[in-house]
Structure formats: C-alpha cells, structure tokens
Design a protein that fits this description.
Layout (H helix, E strand, L loop, with lengths): L3 H24 L5 E2 L17 E7 L10 E4 L2 E6 L10 E6 L11 E3 L19 E6 L2 E4 L5 E5 L5 E5 L30 E8 L5 E5 L5 H8 L17 E7 L4 E6 L26 E7 L5 H15 L8 E6 L4 H13 L4 E3 L8 H27 L1
The structure holds guanosine-5'-triphosphate (GTP) and magnesium ion (MG).
Length: about 375
C-alpha cells in the first residue's frame, strides 16, 4: 500500500518517463518499423485471388397494394382499407477493408422483395437492402465498359440496382367521386443491370521486378503476408498485399506483383494486365537481382514494359532495390548498377535480412513525402 504522497510520486515518475520517451521520439524524425513478433500461420492453403467479376444486380420487387373492404359490427361499410405494399430492396456495393477480393460474389445479386399490403390499412414491410461488401479500390463498369463508380474510400457505397416501389392499396384511391375503389397497384419490378467489377489494389508501394528477383521474399520479410517463394519463375501469379507497421501508427501497404519479362506487353509471360494494380501505387519499387549478369538492363526492360502499359506510371516516384547482396556476383554488379542509373539504389538481401531496416526507413521517408502529403491535400480539397 502506498501513502497518498507515495502514489503521487509514482505518478510523477511515470509522467516524466513518458515525456522523456516522447521527446526522444520527436528528436528522431523517421518512424521505425515495428517487426511483428507473432508467428505466421503455417497453413498451406491455395488462395485464389479474384480481381474481376461480371455480375447481374436485380433490385427487389415492390409489394402489391391490397384491395380490402372493412366490415365492422353495426358498420358494414367501414371503408376501403387495403394497405400499400412495401418497397423492394436495393442492391448496394459497399467498400470495406474486411474483404480483399471478389471471390465471395455470386454472378446474380438479388435484393429481397417488399411485402404486400394487408387489410385494416396495414402497409407491407419494405425489404432490407442487399449490401454487398467489396474491397476498397473496386472499380465499377457498366455493360459498355464505361467506368461509372470508384469505391476508393472505406464505407463508400454504390447503388447498383434500385428496388421497385410498393403498390398502393385501395384506401389510397378513395376520392369524392369514388368512395369504394376496387383498384390497387401492383408493386414495381426492381431494376436489373449488368456490371463488371474490378479490384485495383490500394497499395502505396508496388514491387516491380523480373521473375525470381525476390519480390515475394522481400514482402514476406517486411510484412506478415505469406506469398509463395520458390526458385523458379512466375511463382507469383496474382498480386499479394502486405502491410508494414510503423511505430507512429502509419501503415504502408506493399503489393507484390507478378514478374515482368521482355515482351510482357506482347502478352509474353503473364502479360501486363496485372499492372492495373500498380496504377494506384504512389511509389514504384524496382527489385533487381544483383546475381544476374548486367542487372541494369533489367531496369531498362522494366521501365519500358511499364511505359507500354501507361507512360504516366513512369512519372511516379521510383526507387531501385538491389537484392541478393549475399551472393558473390553482387559485389561486382552493385557499383556498376549505381553508376548506370540516376535513381536512388538501396542494396539488400531479402533472404538474409541485410539492410532491411535501412530500406524500411527509406520507404517511410518516400511515403511521408509523397503519399501522406497527397492525402492531406486531397482531404483539404474535399472540404
Ligand atoms: N541468395 C539469395 N536468394 C534470394 C534472396 N531473395 C530471394 N532469394 C531466392 O530467390 C528465389 C526467388 O524468390 P521469390 O521471392 O519467389 O522471387 P519473386 O520475385 O517473387 O519471383 P516470381 O514470383 O516468380 O516473380 C527464391 O529461391 C528465394 O529464396 C536473397 O536476398 N538472397
Ligand atoms: Mg513471387
């Protein structure tokens, strides 16, 4: 048990310690990456990443209005009392970070129908909307291929098909000239529309490289993602996302993209279609294998293939990461590579973990310079 003054003393020492920690953090400008201590899952389940899906959205039908004439004791004509039908539900796409791809979507998305009206002026219940969760960064195209929606923020919604309105019951049609209408409306049919949904990964950093350069090894080393790693080309067939956590609570998403080869734009290898995932990356990180002869020629090929997909991609901030520093050929190739390019070169060994701390620091600096300031500007613009 502490006395009152003793407890104050402990509280003050805690506050002083916290202030010292805070001032120490403030003096070191760049946040350091937090390495997760939790073990990774060793489940080896194949994961199919579905990034494109064609769907048909059908809104719910409105409930029919009722025709009813109330008869009460001592009042045989208590009046037309048919209630209105309820509205059909809409089909709505909602962006959420709870799902990563479109594999859970069925090809027909249908909302529920509204309930019909009842006697005694009871209205039918309107159906709940069918809210379909899609990943953040989903692009919605109509049947002609025109982009009509872009769900790039958490919880943003797109109404894909509106439900039909409920029909009116015969009570609604009472007028001076028609006191006992025997008419009611049918509920309207819901809309039926076709869409093409496409996920464009919302990564901040995109890893671009030849097959076998070590992109997946690097992603696994710096995040909790577990892409497959193997010593043969085209191990990665679909993009993988990993998140680097920093001690200032910033989270930087990194996308491991399939490998590019000369002629990818002519559909060699896996083609360049997956580069649509790089379109949202604010920074591109070229990963080169230092153990191959003349790795700088790979850099030229990568830049050429990117330009074939979209010349705009080459305007983004770029970094060169030279991997496999642990192999003997790297010692010769690294200085030559540095001489051949004007881009900043960071040498690492993703497998051995060499220089990863340095790389994570540079990634954070580039992120702070480009992505964070862009986000702040866009949030200012939106006000
Ligand atoms: N010696 C050494 N080997 C590495 C290093 N990084 C990756 N490797 C090896 O290189 C091989 C390919 O690694 P991946 O990470 O699968 O390469 P990738 O770029 O993802 O390849 P794709 O998915 O086919 O495009 C694996 O055998 C890794 O163990 C490194 O720093 N040093
Ligand atoms: Mg890979």
């Amino acid at each position: 048990m502490f006395s009152v003054s003793g407890r104050n003393c402990v509280t003050w020492s805690i506050i002083r310690y916290a202030l010292q920690r805070h001032s120490a953090c403030m003096s070191d400008h760049t946040a350091t990456a937090l390495r997760s201590k939790k073990g990774k899952s060793d489940r080896n389940m194949p994961q199919h990443f579905v990034d494109v899906r064609r769907v048909r959205a059908i809104g719910g039908k409105g409930g029919d209005g009722a025709i009813s004439f109330l008869q009460l004791w001592a009042n045989e004509t208590a009046g037309p009392d048919g209630g209105d039908g309820g509205n059909g539900g809409h089909v709505v796409f909602q962006a959420t970070q709870n799902v990563r791809d479109l594999r859970h979507l069925t090809s027909v998305l249908r909302a529920q129908d509204g309930e019909k009206g009842y006697s005694k002026d009871c209205h039918g219940k309107s159906a709940d909307h069918a809210v379909i969760q899609v990943p953040i960064g989903t692009i919605i195209k109509d049947s002609t291929g025109k982009v009509i929606g872009d769900l790039k923020d958490e919880s943003t919604m797109f109404v894909a098909a509106r439900g039909g309105a409920g029909g009116r019951g015969n009570h609604f049609f009472i007028s001076d000239t028609l006191q006992a209408p025997k008419i009611a409306e049918y509920g309207a049919e819901g809309e039926e529309l076709q869409y093409l949904l496409e996920v464009r990964s919302m990564a901040h950093i995109g890893l671009i490289g030849f097959p076998n350069a070590g992109k997946s090894t690097l992603l696994q080393a710096i995040s909790r993602a577990r892409p497959k790693i193997a010593p043969y080309p085209f191990t990665t067939l679909k993009p993988h996302l990993g998140v680097i956590q920093y001690d200032d609570y910033d989270q930087i998403a990194v996308a491991d993209l399939p490998g590019l080869i000369p002629g990818s734009h002519l559909n060699r290898g896996l083609g360049i279609q997956f580069l649509k995932h790089a379109e949202r990356c604010a920074v591109l990180l070229y990963l080169l294998d230092l153990a191959t002869p003349e790795p700088w020629t790979h850099l030229e090929v990568l830049q050429f293939e990117l330009s074939q997909f979209s010349p705009e991609l080459l305007q983004r901030p770029q970094l060169v990461v030279a991997n496999k520093l642990d192999l003997p050929e790297a010692k010769v190739n690294l200085p030559l590579l540095q001489r051949q390019t004007d881009l900043p070169v960071i040498s690492i060994s993703a497998k051995m973990g060499t220089n990863l701390k340095e790389l994570l620091k540079v990634i954070k600096e580039v992120y702070d310079e480009n992505v964070k300031t862009d986000d702040e500007n866009s949030s200012v613009d939106s006000f």
